[in-house]
Design a protein that fits this description.
The complex is a heterodimer. Chain A has 8 helices and 17 strands. In chain A, the strands form 2 sheets. In chain A, strands 1, 10, 11, 12, 13, 14, 15, 16 and 17 form a 9-stranded mixed beta sheet that branches. Chain A has an 8-stranded parallel beta sheet with strand order 2-9-8-7-6-5-4-3. Helix content of chain A is about 25%, strand content about 25%. Chain A is elongated, with a radius of gyration of 22 Å. Chain B folds into 2 domains: about 110 residues, Lyase, Ornithine Decarboxylase, Chain A, domain 1 (Beta Barrel); about 220 residues, TIM Barrel. Chain B has 9 helices and 17 strands. The chains are: A alpha/beta, B alpha/beta. At the A-B interface, helix 3 and strand 10 of A face helix 3, helix 4, strand 10, helix 8 and strand 13 of B.
């Protein structure tokens, strides 16, 4: 568990104990509203991937405090965390293969609207015994950037026919995960083509969901074709390229051993480098050279910049999702002052 | 709701996945290597807490032997957890900067024997001033950069000036010098000896310069897992800061005397002709900048893609894996991975024997 030196509400954010994760509330709210408005114009539902931040307070902002509004999570443990926080419409991307997960599924399905995304027909066998309230089922299909799922549209018929034999299961539609911006268009094509194929076989899909949880959007969602009913995103509150300081990690220079080098107290345990090295926000002439487990190496042109011990370096993570996963708390700031500290409720809920 | 922890005595086959497992026999074997190596040496192991973040496990090494009954910690908050866990001698291997943190450190020094590394006069002066105001004494060691290009003095003269300042200040006790270094790739024993000795000698050179000026050197803390058997053979080294050896990881597997003890148990959740999909992804395994984990007992299967909560493995040979089977994942960078988990499940002969809380997880302050 994190053990920062606690600071009072109202403290300037640069006085917080470092390394620490901060979010600017007003920028966060503005991002959420702007992207929701854009997607509403395109008649596409925006479904927050709450697992990206694991924080029920942010998920509530994303859903406008509407507990019936859908959220997406990766694991059963995460689903349980958000259910406990009051969310009643959860899409889970995991098969309940174990006894414990089946039990949790039963608990969740009887308490709320539950949708499962499955990638293999045998996953239906895992839930066939879960009689009770209905479970909606999404079939996950592959695209160029994700090889997990049903690989051809023809493969979809059999599981749809199979799940129709269970009273408590209902075919909801299709989902695909776009993991690279370049694959978005192809992923949409795959979804629409599969839907057209099902339509020709007299099967209708209520949902065609594009899961682009880790992609950073600018205006790319304007290119999402008609027919896609929902976009699942995890990053949209934090980064839209036009406002890149919604979410950052504050670090402190702890050593300046040579001209042009500074060593900060934030390493891989406090900001993820799993998908790339962080960038420096507040010193344009500085960059992260590399990161060790505990520390970061900042390099800069010493003719242009002088960094000294105690200076604060703001870092923008290469992956928000991976970085939230390292923190138990997030500091919320408004006009540069700390206004609240919120827990990352589902941090570490890997099961 | 958190999933219930497994019952002690339950089978590994009944564990929920993914789970972080410690093979207790392998870990204890690693601890015994340390015990035997340092048994007749004046140099002792000071195990690094940053790798396992669990005082109970650090105590196991102390009980088995080879240590000086103290540990290293990377950060002040991590050191606090160790002191609360009953360990009374902690060396913090990072510079501690800022009045708030130094105050916290000074208070900790009222409760235990606390040492910290230094590389800057202003920082040292501040530390002395705060410790004086609080009424504690903090041990200090000059950090020497031998090869990493990070914190630490660059020359013996810089080290001497810091030592002289420390020697003149109140409430800090100058103890000696320390360094940390690494070796690239899969190094053979000869390379480990050559590289390890080269770096440790650089640290000793700074110590000698300080000693020659008339200031006593009580501690030379240098060496780590890759040089654990080099350091005690070098006159003057008093302690070694090893951490990786406890659980080990794929990239350090060249040290065959140590066994891989930390693994992640996963379940196969999908299969097809080309790939296996497991229920462990980047969030629980980590894959820093493309370094991917391995699969225990099967070199025909390799990590292909890692996503948030699942990964795909390429099948290159014949296997019979089916949905529901379990695999053990060998970690690629163990301390980064451990920092993401709340518990270790200690297993011996396929049976859960103990559950350890990773109580310093997230202690990056």
């Amino acid at each position: 568990m994190e053990r920062p030196i606690s600071k009072p509400i109202g403290q300037h954010f640069l006085e917080l104990d470092t390394p620490t994760l901060i979010i600017d509330k007003n920028l966060l709210q503005a991002n959420i509203e702007a992207i929701q408005a854009d997607l509403e114009k395109a008649s596409i539902d925006l479904i927050p991937n709450a697992a990206a931040h694991g924080t029920s307070a942010i998920a509530r902002m994303q859903t406008g405090n509407n507990t019936k509004s859908p959220i997406f999570v990766d694991t059963f443990q995460q689903a349980e965390c958000f259910f406990q926080a009051g969310f009643e419409n959860i899409i889970i991307q995991a098969p309940p293969l174990s006894f414990t997960k089946k039990g949790l599924l039963r608990h969740l399905q009887d308490s709320q609207t539950l949708t499962l995304s499955i990638s293999n027909i045998s996953h239906l066998d895992a839930i066939r015994g879960n009689h009770g309230s209905p479970i909606s089922v999404l079939l996950k299909i592959t695209n160029k950037s994700d090889s997990v799922g049903f690989k051809t549209r023809e493969e979809l018929i059999k599981p749809i026919e199979y799940l129709a034999t269970f009273e408590h299961l209902r075919f909801e539609g299709l989902i695909t995960n776009a993991n690279e911006m370049e694959s978005m268009e192809q992923a949409c094509e795959v979804l629409i083509s599969a839907d057209e194929y099902l339509d020709r076989n007299s099967i209708s899909s209520d949902q065609l969901l594009l899961n682009a949880s880790n992609l950073i959007f600018e205006k790319e969602f304007n290119n999402i074709p008609k027919g896609i009913t929902g976009l699942i995103s995890g990053t949209y509150p934090f980064h839209t390229k036009t406002q890149d300081t919604v979410c950052s990690v504050i670090s402190t220079v702890i050593s300046t051993p040579e001209p042009g080098k500074a060593y900060v107290d934030c390493g891989q345990k406090a900001i993820s480098v799993d998908r790339g090295v962080p960038s420096v926000i507040n010193y344009p002439d500085a960059e992260i050279e590399k990161m060790s487990a505990e520390h970061g190496y900042v390099i800069f042109d010493s003719n242009k910049l002088h960094l000294k011990i105690g200076d604060k370096i703001l870092l923008s993570p290469a992956s928000y999702s991976d970085t939230f996963n390292l923190y138990d708390f997030v500091n919320i700031i408004e006009e540069d002052k700390l206004i609240s500290i919120i827990p990352t409720d589902s941090r570490g809920a890997f099961k | 709701m958190k999933f219930n922890q497994p019952n002690i005595g339950s089978s590994i086959a009944d564990l929920e996945t993914p789970s972080l497992i410690i093979d207790l026999e392998a870990m204890e074997s690693n601890f015994s290597v340390i015990s035997e190596t340092y048994a007749n040496s004046t140099c002792k192991m000071r195990q690094h807490a940053k790798n396992i973040k669990c005082p109970d496990i650090l105590w196991r090494q102390i009980e088995i032997g080879g240590t000086l009954n103290g540990v290293c910690a990377a950060k002040v908050s991590e050191a606090e957890v160790m002191v609360e866990g009953g360990i009374r001698d902690v060396l913090i291997t990072s510079e501690v900067v800022g009045e708030d943190k130094q105050k916290r450190l000074a208070y900790l020094a009222k409760r235990a024997n606390i040492k910290v590394c230094i590389d800057n006069k202003e920082n040292l002066t501040g530390l002395s001033s705060i410790a004086t105001s609080i009424g504690s004494v903090i041990g200090v060691l000059v950090e020497v950069d031998t090869s990493m290009g990070r914190a630490g003095v660059r020359t013996p003269q810089q080290g001497l000036e810091l030592a002289q300042l420390a020697d003149s200040l109140e409430s800090v006790e100058f103890l000696g010098v320390m360094s940390h270094q690494t070796v690239e790739g899969f190094a053979d024993k000869e390379t480990r000896f050559l590289e390890g000795k080269k770096y440790i000698d650089m640290c000793l050179e700074v110590g000698k310069t300080i000693h020659d000026s008339g200031i006593e050197i009580k501690v030379v803390s240098s060496g780590e897992t890759f040089s654990y058997d080099v350091a005690p053979m070098i006159d003057g080294v008093t302690e070694v800061e090893g951490g990786t050896y406890a659980l080990m990881s794929g990239p350090t597997a060249y040290m065959e005397e140590f066994s891989l003890a930390g693994k992640v148990l996963t379940t196969v959740i999908d299969v097809d002709d080309d790939q296996i999909v497991i229920d462990a992804g980047i969030k629980c395994l980590g894959g820093p900048l493309g370094v991917k984990p391995g699969i225990e007992g099967n070199r025909h299967i390799t990590f292909d893609q890692m996503y948030d909560s699942y990964s795909t493995l390429s099948r290159k040979g014949k296997d019979n894996y089916k949905i529901g089977d379990t695999l053990l994942i060998e970690t690629s960078q163990q301390d980064i991975l451990v920092n993401r988990w709340d518990h270790f499940i200690g297993v011996r002969d396929g049976v859960v024997e103990v559950i350890y809380e990773i109580s310093a997880r997230g202690c990056h302050h």
